[in-house]
Design brief:
- The chain is built from one helix and six strands, in the order E-E-E-E-H-E-E.
- The protein has about 140 residues and is mostly beta strands.
- A hairpin with a 5-residue loop joins strand 2 and strand 3.
Length: about 140
């Protein structure tokens, strides 16, 4: 079984590509903190390259920027190529099956907002008082 789940922050803005056949691709790097601290008490991070395709790539390219907190689910892939000097090089990367923004609402780095600099919509009004154990919410706040 080859399954990878990562939660971390983008180290830079994603790089968007489109293949000759029109398929979207996005490459980015996720910084993931290690579970344990080193001898000096510092929790180091690993910087993991990720490749997303099609709808996942479109989401990443449109909504995520450097610092965005994401959850990535996918598989590990190792590929090789011959460098210009004739040596064989290996690349290890995660091929994303899904990418989700996991930042909290108050965390501006984690909010999924379009990267274009167009006008932003006004904030949704606060929910009204509870009635019969239900709270009123605006339609645009519903996740479906």
């Amino acid at each position: 079984m080859n399954k990878v789940i990562l939660i971390g922050n983008l180290t830079r803005d994603p790089e968007a590509f489109t293949t000759q056949s029109g398929v979207s691709r996005s490459t980015f790097t996720v910084a993931v903190q290690r579970r344990f601290a080193n001898a000096q008490g510092v929790r180091e991070a690993d910087f993991i390259p990720v490749v997303a395709w099609r709808q996942s790539a479109d989401f990443v390219n449109r909504y995520l920027t450097k610092g965005s907190k994401v959850a990535v689910e996918g598989s590990m892939q190792v590929r090789s190529y011959d460098a210009q000097d004739g040596s064989k090089r290996y690349v290890t990367e995660v091929i994303a099956d899904s990418v989700e923004s996991v930042g909290s609402r108050g965390d501006s780095q984690g909010q999924a907002r379009p990267r274009d600099n167009g006008p932003t919509p006004p904030p949704a009004p606060a929910a009204g008082p509870a009635m019969n154990d239900f709270t009123e919410v605006e339609d645009d706040e519903l996740p479906f």
